[in-house]
C-alpha cells in the first residue's frame, strides 16, 4: 500500500518540475487532461457496474455520501466563518461583469456524473468482466497527474507569489484543517480506519482524483462514495457562492475547494469582483496540490 499510494505523487512532481513555453503544446495538454478526466470517471463507473452486490450496497453508499457531504459542509463553513472573523476580507459585489450562465455551469457540473453513469451501465449490461480496468485506471491517473503538474507549473502563477497571498493561503489551510476534523468526526460513522476516512475527506472537490485514488485503495464502492462527495460539493458551491460572497467571501471561495481556481472561478469573479480572483486562484492552486499529497500519504498508512 505504501509504495502504491505514494507512487501516484511521482508524476505530479515530475510534471511540476518541467517548464514549457509552447502554447500549442499546453493547449494539447489541456484537451488531453479533459479527455482523461472523463475516461477515468467512465472506468470508475465500469468498476462500480461490475462490482458484486452493487444493488444491495446502494442504500449504504447513499448514507455514506450524505454523511460525508453534510459533515464536510458544516465543518468547512464553520472553519471558514471563523477565519473570516479573524481575517475579514471586503469585496465589491457591484457586478463588474455579466453574470455567468448558471444553468450552463450546473449542467457542466452534471457531466462527470453522466460519465460515471455511462461506465456503470456499460459494465453492468454490455461488457464482460474487465480485470485490467483497475490497472488501466491507475496508469491513466498517473498520466493525468503528470499533465496536471505541467498545468500548475505553466499557469503563470509563481508558487512563491501564491504562498504570500495570505488570504488564499489561510483559506486553503482552513479548508484542510476543517476537512480533516470532519474526517475524525466521521471515523465511527463510516467504520473505516481513521487514516482512510481522512483520505476520503481530503478530495477538496477534485472528484476525478479522489474517486479513482480511493477506489484503487479501498474498492469501487468507496471510490464511488468519494466521487459523489466531491462532485456534489462542486454543485453546492455553485449555489452557495453568490449567496455568501458579499458578506463572507472566505466561506464562498473556500467551500469551492480545489475548483476555486477553475470551475467555480467564473462565479467567484462575477459575484465577488476582481479582488476575489487572486485569492481564489491561490486557494484553489494550493488545495489542488495538497489533495493528492494528503490522500497518498494517508492511504499509505494502512
UniProtKB/TrEMBL annotation:
Alphabetical list of Pfam families matching this protein: Lys_export
GO CC list: plasma membrane
InterPro entries cross-referenced by the UniProt entry: LysO
TM region positions: 61-84, 105-126, 132-150, 171-192, 204-228, 235-257, 277-301
GO MF terms, alphabetically ordered: L-lysine efflux transmembrane transporter activity
Signal peptide residues on this chain, from the entry's feature table: none
Keyword line: Membrane, Transmembrane, Transmembrane helix
Protein name, UniProt field: Lysine exporter LysO family protein
Species this chain originates from: Marinobacter lutaoensis
Source taxonomy: Bacteria, Pseudomonadati, Pseudomonadota, Gammaproteobacteria, Pseudomonadales
